[in-house]
Structure formats: structure tokens, C-alpha cells
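Input C-alpha cells:
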């Protein structure tokens, strides 16, 4: 394996790890937003009927 190939492999691995971490952050944000939205709907319904 040449030096360029090792550098490219390391760069590809770093990019893949970054993409995985970014996807996790986006997933967490989406899950929190959906949870907060659902909580807001439940509170709104209980406030109107109570």
C-alpha cells in the first residue's frame, strides 16, 4: 500500500466517522423535537378538556 493510499484510507475513515456522528446528532434532535411536539399536543388536549 502506498503512502497516498494510506492517507486516502485514513481520510475516508474520518469522513465516515464524521457522517455517522452527524447522523446520530440529527437523529437525536429529531427524536427530541417529535417528543416535545407530542408532549405539547397532549398538554393542549388535556388543557382544553380539563
Amino acid at each position: 500500500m502506498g503512502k497516498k493510499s494510506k492517507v486516502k484510507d485514513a481520510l475516508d475513515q474520518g469522513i465516515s466517522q464524521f457522517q455517522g456522528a452527524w447522523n446520530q446528532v440529527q437523529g437525536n434532535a429529531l427524536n427530541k423535537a417529535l417528543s416535545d411536539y407530542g408532549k405539547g399536543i397532549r398538554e393542549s388536549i388535556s388543557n382544553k378538556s380539563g
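The helical segments are 3-49. Residues 4 and 10 are 10 Å apart (CA to CA).
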